[in-house]
Structures
1.
Amino acid sequence: MTTTAPAPDTAAAGPAPAPGSSPWQLARRELRRRPAVRVSLGIVALFVLMAVTAPWLGALGGWSPHEFDKSAVDPYLGGQPIGALGGISPEHWLGVEPVTGRDLFARVVHGAQVSLLIAFAATAIVVVAGTAAGIAAGYFGGRTDTVLSRLMDLTMSFPSLIFMIALLSVAKDVNRLVLMTVVIGVFGWPGIARVVRGQTLSLKHREYVDAARVGGAGPWRILTREILPGVAGPVIAYTTLLIPGMISTEAALSYLGVGVRPPTPSWGQMIAESVAHYETDPMYFVIPSAFLFLAVLAFTLLGDALRDILDPRGGRS
Amino acid sequence: MIVYLARRLLALAGVLLAIAAVTFLIFYVLPADPAAAACGKTCSAERLADVRVHLGLDQPLWRQFADFLTGIFTGRTLGTGQYAVTCDFPCLGYSYESSLPVWDLLMDRLPVSASLALGAAVLWLILGLGAGVTAALRKDTATDKALMVGAVAAASLPVYFTSVMLIHGVIRIAGLLPYPTYQAFTDNPLGWASNLLLPWTALALLYAAMYARQSRGSMIEAMAEPYIRTARAKGMPERTVVVKHGLRSGMTPILTIFGIDLGGLLAGAVITESIFGLPGIGRLFYGALVNSDQPVVLGVTLLAAFFIVVANLVVDLLYAVIDPRVRY
Amino acid sequence: MAAPLLEVRDLRVTFTTPRGTVRAVDSVGFTVESGRTLGIVGESGSGKSVTSLAVMGLHRGAVEVGGSVALAGQELTGLTERELGKVRGRRMAMIFQDPLSSLHPYYTVGEQIAEHFRVHFRSGRAAARRRAVDMLGEVGIPEPARRAGEYPHQFSGGMRQRAMIAMALACEPELLIADEPTTALDVTVQAQILELIARLQQERGLGVVMITHDLGVVARVAHEVLVMYGGRAVEQAPVDALFADPAHPYTRGLLDSLPRLDTADDEPLPFIPGSPPSLLLPAPGCAFAPRCPRAAERCTGERPEPAAYGDGTGRTVACHFAGVRAVEEAAR
């Protein structure tokens, strides 16, 4: 396992290692070599850009995601979009929603914002909580380890999707975004905590950690300077692989109608609404599905590549 | 072994108790008023008070929980006097919506969900492990890359998308199968299978993709072990080396995730059952949510948790059978 | 004259890695006769294990093996996997450095030996099982019938290596390749394993290839020695001649860095400065030149080929100065 912490002899050697030999630089070079990585990195960057600039990007199309356009749908055909391919036109770049005539481009872009916001925030909760719990359990051992490990087992025994659905449907008057983030986050941390715990256990007794301890470093210093850099590689790889799962979960919950509430757009919710129309207006079904698919795919490919490089043994424990 | 089993069963009971407590707290305390939900929309204040007493909601919370637990193990009597209803073991209460015992509702739906889960599991194990092992043995070849690209793509497709496409393609356009209506295996095995074929496929595709990725990794790891080299040094045919020495250790890690996945699915695949209109536990659960039918929601959650912890226990016991180094 | 038991000529093993091709073994040749032991010595990365795996035909993946490997006159390179399977394990067998990870953790020791027997002989399960117990007894495992039913993790390190030897010899091979068989073991157990191999060799007339980095092991068991450096044979000689008079500067360095009983305690142990060469970017000249005390300009430009040393022992040395030194010493 490569770690970012230097071995004692190179640390004693004084000058920094030659440029291009640190694990991060190796990782970057390795990433650049793979075409799949470049493509997925591009798509990920595009989605992130889309999510961050959603208000402006959405406005570029000239429509707000909530604005009805009755002129784009045919009232005599049950509110079907006017024109081919679900009403794709210079006016509405990706067509419109049947019945309401809301602009699909604006809704999909704003949906990206909601999906990625929840996915990133939930991932952040999972990573911070999981890493902290994993390091604490691995480093302090004893009772701390017992309690945390039991808690991990317990959380993993929860039927998480059923529980999430139930929890979200019960809670009424709260911010849906925050609630979804927390609920998704709460069930995600044990996975990463186990990986980090295992990694910490193996790092704890490495020579350079012992050397730091003998050298009088306190536990806080050892944790932040020696252990944390050592678990960083697997954590980053694992984190990237968590994101597609989070995006899928958010979409599934919104699909089931317990996620983001209308009129706030979300991909899962758009797909759920479009199912009723898929025979008459297939584009309405295909467009949000394609965005969801691409986002999950791109993050998975990127995560795979990062795992291969940063954590060659797969972080299984 | 006996001691280990006893300890595990005790821990299992503890986990279920904790899950029951958390679930109970959330579903009986958070919502506005379970009595109102049970009583229905046209409910007088007087009737509401009666219902409250009948459901035991006038009791302190711990008392309610204790009664609920007692009900599971021994059955209990709900209400008093002329309204008294006995709820037999194992009592999970009565549905507010249909007034039927939750346990009966669950057992009524279980065959559907179990059929869906087990059939899909067979399908995804064959597809997923087949693809994963093939890719591992042909590592870095075009076959490997094609299989893995397919797997990552299939794993990225949401199950509701695949389901809708399958319904559209196979039922609507090709007209190969009727729209699924569940038939019991005991009534008509052929009808059972043909009606479940599409839901199985939709569910299996997603899991097969994940299993292909997992099993490729663990098979590559297994085939790199020194004992594989020893087996080859003995002059064993490569086929025997792979089947007897590689697969056995390569497939062991898959067992863990299979236990969790199957356990989770036995108590209902909410999305798949909803889309295909299968009357399983998942759809029961979804309907109960919409109607705020708390006892059913609680019942499904507990059943799901039960399946997961039991599956975990079974997996751990199987490990001892597979790996002689594991001793309890 | 009959063909030697094992004859390896011009063996080349090339790995293709993402960073380029690596010639791990280049132009290596040797012979082993029945009842004799060849010791192959070198540091890690010298190509000694790669050589032995190539003889067994055990390389997998992006590897190319060239040259000739002949077992009792039968050419093995170019055989199909199926044909090679009849020789491998049957007429030549191999034992490895780490017996714990080299035995399958899920099968009993007896099963693994019986399985080997059944690959090559049409025998029933019961007969194969009896064979396994007999073999375990022969390698000195007490209560073999009971131990055959145990798993590798229930054996001690030395017992595991004995079991590996029992397995390797179950089909009565003519050649045994032992790749660092004692490295993972305690010193006392090491001696027992070496004695066991020597005894079995005598009883069965086995040809043995002993791969090790430990000159002590070589001195103990080998009849001939092949010293490898950077994927090439640098010196090949009968064991007595080699220890008495190392001809290659690398061999000399190896011998000098052995602790001896007859030198003063406070004298620092000599060592070979520098580190083994990169096989990814091989130098055009002698691989040992950067670390060699005798290196001259010629050494970095022109690679020395193995040549007869001319001391009457059949020794070959790959060094520009090997002959010169012999002349110098004779003149002194």
2.
Amino acid sequence: MDNYSRAFLFNGIGSKPEKLLVKLPPELMDKYIHYFDEAFARLGLCKDIEKNSFYDKRVAEWIISLICDRVVYEFYLEKGLIPDIGAGYSSGIVSISGCFGAVSHEFAHDIIMMNRATMKCLDENGQKLDMGVVIGFSYSDMQEILDKSFSPDELIIGSGNSRFHVMISGKAEAVTKALEICQNEGALKAFSFGTGVAYHHPVMKDYSHEYVELCGQDVYSAPVYPILSIFDYRIMTTGADIMKENQLNVYTPIRWDIALDKLADMGVREFFDVSANGAVSKFSRVKRKCKIYTLDDIIS
Amino acid sequence: MRELTPEIREEIKDMIFDYYAEECEVEKDEITMETNPQNDLGSDSLMFVELIEMTADKYDMDIKLQAIGKYMLKTPMDTMSDVVDMFCKIYQYGNDIVNQ
């Protein structure tokens, strides 16, 4: 049996660029600026984020998340921290696909850019969707509330992140109503993303054909390090595995909490959060014998 | 109900101030009982969860976050004084804090 002791965790999109960049130490900024200039020129995005059109602004922020992940990932490698395996939370799958060499970084950026087509398609079809986060509720607490008040077509748990952190996804009205219920039932915090999309809800399948088609292109290689599937917890070692994972990502629910437990069961004791601001470590919890390290830990 | 001695109250206050000073990257002596944890220190609910988990570990308690959430509906945490008071009540009453 393979020996896994160190896992790298890649965050999805969601952190605002200013929260990421403030955490990058000066010695990493030159590299960040180089990758940023290169990517934004190639993708035709305005470097002044606010000057981009509505959809471009959103994906521009997400591209910055991927670039920060890449800079931190390369910094960890330079420090001699080599992963035995990795996992990507939500769009962290795209990020890890690029960093672990299953696709080029350019193709990973193209996948993120394709979210524009999905958002446009949802708008054109009058779909009012949303996502939200509830802090203070476990997966089963949340499922109990959903079972009482909502059908799966309206609202599901998009991601069970940890014993106190769940993401819900579905119809915007249902998200609003569920967040209100949770607040009254003792959530420490419950808020919506207001993004108009419901990633990890099956409804997205009908509106993400272009995204899924792009992800299905014949451009994948075997990743340099294995990646754990966050959908069925298989260890993925081939390009075909990674392609399928990217395709599923947009419309399939996640159990991030189970994925982390699985990694611990496989022997992982050191988890390294690849997000610049330690976002993964904040919403994740690992077993007592394990520890999640952040960029701050490695720098200090 | 557990007895809250002045020593335990001071220990809880120290734990909270140390935590916020480290997490929010400020000097401990810059934090006062009037400091607003959200507005003045930039703290968030995930930091709050971590503080609750630390308290549970330190005092060997099984704390349900929803009990604390319900208490906070009645008693907002606007200042460090509110936070210290609440953690003292958690120490004293555990999950029964919701009825205090």
